[in-house]
Amino acid sequence: MRIVLGIESSCDETAAALVTEDRRILAQAIASQDDSHAPYGGVVPEIAARAHAERLTPLIGRVLDDAGLSLDDCSAIAATAGPGLIGGVMVGLVTAKALAMASDRPLLAINHLEGHALSPRLADADLQFPYALLLVSGGHCQVLRVDGVGRYRRLATTIDDALGEAFDKTAKILGLGFPGGPAVERLAAEGDAKAVPLPRPLFGSEEPHFSFAGLKSAVLRAHESGKYRAADIAASFQQAAIDCILDRTTRALSAMGEVTALVVAGGVAANRSVRAALEHLAASHGVRFVAPPPALCTDNAAMIAWAGLEWLEKGRPGDALDVAARPRWP
Ligand code: KG4
Ligand code: ZN
Q1: Same structural domain for residues 158 and 102?
Q2: Which residues bind substrate (predicted)?
Q3: Given the CA of residue 84, which atom of ligand 1 is nearest to it?
Q4: Is 152 part of any domain?
Q5: Do residues 25 and 46 both lie within one domain?
Q6: ipTM beyond cut 0.95
Q7: Tell me: the pLDDT tens digits for 156-167?
Q8: DSSP H or E stretch at residue 171
Q9: What is the tens place of the pLDDT at every residue in 265-282?
Q10: From the CA of 82, how far away is ligand 2's center (Å)?
């Protein structure tokens, strides 16, 4: 039975997890840095890198202790090698290299987006390729066709802001603090989604992509007008964002051929209204809908360990110890 140690440090969560090839998360730990970044209203890369450096090694020790295992029990060590904030990625990757070298285990340098893309298969053993994936996080907003491990075709991406970024900026405008997504979701539940007229950028457009910058600016204008309640702005924003996602995902689905399921992953997939809307869309297209549990949607190390297990299953040898951390890695 293969067991992989996963390490994630590409943004503001320091995380480690031990996952088995039969989909059991033996142990995991996540240290969130929200409090450190909250005063700045966003993630400060240098603060993030320092926090990862302080926390990662004890976190890995704790996860191994919790599972009653040592590195010798692991088949490989998988770490996020990008894309992300380079300082944090380097902390995780260098730590993984050291552990791989010390324990004579293979190192697997994992693409963070691939971790999100494959995470639904950790949660759902029945999810088969090919599937349509809507990846909505703080840094990305994409629709992909996932044909297999390492085989991804991108059909749409954002031309400006990511969806999570739009949630975070809306939260900042409304003074809801950081991270913004969950706060906007909570406030939206008390508001009227029809109260504030907001644009739906690229809705119905011939081109496949997403755009959220205009929506964010409109949220700012609505707030500054003083005419609307914050809850109504939050609800109207969330509805406009959902309308855009549904329209763009529908378009992508019609362009990608047969798939087994519509899958949503990434931090924004933790949003209940987003999930419900996509579930409805999948049903109307006659495909299954799969969304990992919210804790697997936001950044975590179990998804990195799982991506490592998927690659081991495909026979990937370990990566060279000089593999580089990549701030950008499509
Ligand atoms: O995947 P993730 O944890 O980190 C990145 O790789 O970016 O995604 C974080 C993003 C943040 O923008 C956060 O505000 C958003 O996901 N998010 C949400 C919710 N929970 C997290 N957005 C909307 N509703 C939520 N419940
Ligand atoms: Zn992420």
Answers
A1: no
A2: 135-139, 168, 181, 185, 271
A3: 6
A4: yes
A5: yes
A6: yes
A7: 999 999 999 999
A8: helix 163-173
A9: 999 999 999 999 999 999
A10: 10
Residues 97 and 200 in one domain: no
Residue 322: inside a domain: no
102-121: pLDDT as tens digits = 999 999 999 999 999 999 99
Give the domain range for residue 14.
3-117+297-313
164 lines ligand 1 (CB under 6 A): yes
Q: Are 175 and 182 in contact (CB under 8 A)?
A: no
Indicate whether residue 78 lines ligand 1 (CB < 6 A).
no
53 and 169 share one domain: no
CATH number, residue 90: 3.30.420.40
248 in Cβ contact with 207 (< 8 Å) = no
Mean of per-residue pLDDT scores for the chain? 96
- How many angstroms separate the CA atoms of 245 and 275, rounded? 11
Task: Report the pLDDT value the prediction gives residue 42, as an integer from 0 to 100.
Answer: 82
Q: What is the pLDDT of residue 40?
A: 84
DSSP state of 41: T
Phi-psi region of 257 (alpha: psi -120 to 50; beta: other; left: phi over 0): left
How many other CB atoms sit within 10 Å of the CB of residue 281? 20
Mutation to probe ligand 1, out of 114, 137, 140, 184 (largest number of atoms < 8 A from CB): 137
* Residues 72 and 92 occupy one common structural domain: yes
